[in-house]
Amino acid sequence: MIQKTTKRFGKKNAVLSTAVIFFSGIYFTQAQQTQPVKDSALDKQIEEVVLVGSRSGGRSKADSPVPVDVFNLKDIQLSLPQTNINQILNSIAPSFTSTIQTNADGSDHLDPAQLRGLGPDQALVLVNGKRRHTSALINVNGTPGRGSVGTDLNAIPAFALSKIEVLRDGASAQYGSDAIAGVMNLQLKKDTGKLTGQFNYGGYLTPAANDHTGNYDGQQYQVDLNYGNKIGKRGGFYNLTWSSQFRDPTRRAGTENAPIYNAYNAIEKRALENGVNLSSYFNNINNLKGTAGEQDFVNLIHQYAQGVSYFNSVSPTLQSSIQSANSITALQNVLKTSAFTTDQLNYLTDQELAYRGQTRKDFNMQVGQSKLNNHQLFANVEVPLNDDWKVYTFGGYSIRNGASGGFYRRPTQSRTFTGLYIDGYLPAIHTKIQDVSLAAGIKGKWNGWNVDLSNTFGQNGFDYTIENTGNTSLRFNSPSTFKAGGLQFLQNTINLDFSKQFDVFEGLNVAFGAEQRHENFRINPGEEASYTAYDVNGNPQTPTSVNPTDFFGAALAGGSQVFAGFREANRTNKSRNSYAAYADFEFNFTNWFLLDAAVRFEDYSDFGSTFNYKLASRIKLADNFNFRFAGSTGFRAPSIHQIYYNTTSTLFVSGELREVGTFSNDQPIAVGFGIPNLKQETSKSFSTGFTYKIPALNLNVTADAYFIRIDDRIVLTDQFTRFSNPTTEAQKLVNAEFTKAGVNAAQFFANSIDTETRGLDVVISHNLSKEAFKLTNDFAINLNNTRKVGDIHASDLLKNAGLETTYFGERSRVYLEDSVPKIKASLSNNFKWNDFNFYLRNTYYGKVYGADNVDANLDGILLPNEHQLISDKIITDLSIGYDINKNFNLTIGANNLFDIYPTKNLAVSSNNDQFVYSRSTSQFGQNGRYVFSKLTVSF
Q1: Which terminal residue of the chain, N or C, has fewer Cβ atoms less than 10 Å from its own Cβ?
Q2: Which residues, at least 6 apart from 575, have a Cβ–Cβ distance to it below 8 Å?
Q3: Strands, sheet with 656-662, edge to edge from the N-terminal-most edge strand
Q4: Cβ(691)–Cβ(701) under 8 Å?
Q5: What is the distance between the terminal CA atoms of the chain, rounded to a whole angstrom?
Q6: What's the average pLDDT block by block, 10 residues per block, for the chain (939 residues)?
Q7: 3-state secondary structure of 183
Q8: In angstroms, rounded to a whole number, what is the distance separating the alpha carbons of residues 148 and 131?
Q9: By C-alpha distance, which of 479, 486, 560, 477 is closest to 522?
Q10: How much is the pLDDT for 465?
């Protein structure tokens, strides 16, 4: 790997040094006090009870044997510009990473999230302690988390939450599959007797707005309302939240610098201006050759070419060459792109743009955040039946409509039917994401046991409509909008849990229970025209049919451009069931020694069973100093999506667009390549650390080191292509499957590698209260490093064919190891003075590497593992709030105050200056400075 030699010590240590100096200053200031200040608010924070990671009813955060972060969203949301869960956590939790994606199909509308640098599907999400269902979408594009299925956190309104607990430790033995990196528990509000609301408005004020012409874009409006009240007199309640968000897109492309028009496009335009559509004279150009109509068509080319005044400025002989070409073949040779240099084509383009009153920016892609309208309703209800038993329910519904752009279809491309789109077009991907969840249960006491019986249902649907596009093979008969089908995932979980405290030693808690989970995954095909290629008669193409072409003889592609619909052959309706039993013991042998032990057995109907365990301990070495350590085994079942997902997508790979098929492992093409069926990932994790409180300084310090080994990790392979010289029946079968699917590349999910992750989390909290003010300071840093270890798990067939590095290639390695910062740190300061509140946060994002294989150091030598370094940055957020009265608070501020952007892409990775910044990494995004105002009301 090529790395720049410039030292980046300064930025990295700026955050650390600032923290050291700052907290040293705290000590110096407070050491002068003769009496330590008692701060009940701080005591409450340090002794805050956490529920995740324990089945004993909760314990203080400092006394937990595993690290848990607690974020009180009701307080945090007053100051932060971020309004959804992903972006809030990305800004305040160093171990959490999520950025808005661009030009990545469905991922543009659902931001993949990662914990401790592991995959989006290796962190489990709970709501009120119950397993949350995942998204229907599987990330198959070139983004961090490629090949994974995450949880759609943005389907839950952040305003519905009281706090988020993040357990930073493996917990599969306690909670089951997915909890390798950790667990996030979202606690819903229980507030009663008041109505609260927030009204947000903001946008990006940056010179890079509107494709680097400046001003303002990406405006966002959001309205949140929350109301709760009591039910009965036994502590029952209901709490309701409504949230609506309207987000405009941002545009961060540069200026399209590739040739846009060719000489034939110019002639075609002059003809159209005179009422002649040249495309109407043929459907397959080869069928016109040698017919009576050929000379008529040639004459039309001769006639309208004379209307292009600049042709001889492109080449002194161009006009005469056209006029002397007396056949279609001769004209093709004169007008074809390869007959011109790039400079000539760009000159021709500039002249044609001027003639049509256009600029190059008119042909830009929409690079940046997508357009979204998001509406959410959530409820949390509890009703006591008597002094011992209560029933409860919670859940919600959300609907999100998104729109994002694809790759511009230029007039020079055979993907563009210029008979309809004389200037080309920018196709748009519209998504409709619907999410519904409902949990209901009864809990109480029975013979001294705490009992909780619940059923949790969740469903996520992802439907595609492609607009401003065309099925090129249908030519004039193509619609511009296609229903492209969609994905649906359903999960239903039944839990029965028992726990009881025993008066043994200093306390013993015993918990056990069972779980049954049903999952269903569906692929619903789109309309026929969204995926079918048609012949010249409008019938689906066959091996012997005559198919449409452009003027140069290139085949016109079928299916809706930018996103071909799911085919009837992709239709999927698959289910599976799992059954689990667990036991959990918490021994307080003494008031200074705690030991947790958990075991879990789980059996899946589609791949087998797994047994996991966990041991964790906390030793109180002093009143304010705890040592803790944990070790566990874990697993992640292959998602049902990964097992059965299959489709065709248009992907941008190594500077070109490809039709790429994603195939399930039971299909003939997978068998032909020697791709085995999926099995579960297994893990071993160890962590050790300490917590330390200094009451005299109101200071709290935690530090935890961790190690995670994952075997048989599931990744999405790189792209396999046809065998150039097939010699075996299996290879011939593979090539036939390529033709049948209409793709030129194929990818699969596979247990291809083992990985190891090492890391360190440090959190330092401080609080100082005086009569006139209150100051809160928090510093946190996460260091993590994930590496592939051992050999690639390729079959002999793949090894013998030399395809081992396609099974797990260099791009996949970068997505796994280098696309997420290895260092992320934040220092936040909140100063409350009378009715004013000042919030300042600096976040350090470590360096990452782009996935493209490029000559990064520009020495003229391209190494196989050479990638562009995207340097580290510090992002500053600032907000100022004012309590107008007890009912109203107004906050204004900025995220990314100094308008910092990532390192610019090298030209070779920019797709003709469209991707000014990398879209294959996860740091802090590419939208620049966001300014906002927020009105919070409470009655």
Answers
A1: C
A2: 518, 519, 520, 521, 640
A3: 647-653, 656-662, 745-747
A4: yes
A5: 58
A6: 40 43 41 37 44 63 85 85 86 83 73 85 94 92 82 93 92 91 94 95 96 94 96 94 96 96 97 97 96 95 97 96 96 96 97 97 94 96 95 97 93 95 96 97 95 97 96 96 97 97 91 97 97 94 92 94 91 96 94 94 89 95 94 93 85 63 88 90 95 92 95 92 84 86 87 95 92 91 94 90 90 91 94 94 94 88 91 95 95 96 92 90 89 95
A7: strand
A8: 18
A9: 486
A10: 97
Cα–Cα separations (whole angstroms), residue 820 to 153, 240, 546, 654, 925: 19, 36, 49, 20, 12
* Alpha-carbon span 250 to 404, nearest angstrom: 10
Could you give phi then psi for residue 379, rounded to 5 degrees?
-140, 150
β-pairing, 656-662 with 68-72?
unpaired
Q: Is the dihedral of CA 381, 383, 389, 393 positive or negative?
A: negative
Contact 406, 364 (CB under 8 A): no
The structure tokens listed for 837 are 């509140």
Residue 909, classed as helix, strand or coil, is: helix
Count the neighbouring beta carbons within 10 Å of the beta carbon of residue 147. 26
Sign of CA dihedral 545, 550, 552, 558: negative
Q: Which of 462, 463, 470 lies closest to 426, judged by CA? A: 470
Q: Is 257 helix (H, G, I), strand (E, B) or coil?
A: coil
In 3-state terms, the chain is what percent helix, strand and coil (to 5)? Answer: 20, 40, 35
Sign of CA dihedral 557, 558, 562, 563: negative
Pair of tokens at residue 271: 């003809």
DSSP β-bridge partners for residue 238 = 229, 381
Q: Using DSSP, state whether 287 is helix, strand or coil.
A: helix
Q: Which residue has the tokens 């659902």?
A: 110
d(CA 339, CA 362): 26
| Greatest distance between any 2 Cα atoms in the chain | 106
Query: Which tokens sit at 887?
Result: 């009912």
Instruction: From residue 656, give the alpha-carbon distance in Å to each of 70, 407, 660, 911.
Output: 45, 11, 12, 9
Beta bridge pairs of residue 522: 488, 573
Q: Which amino acid is at 566?
A: F
What are the C-alpha distances in Å from 676 to residues 667, 704, 795? 11, 38, 8
Tokens of 409: 């279809």
Say which DSSP state 139 is in: -
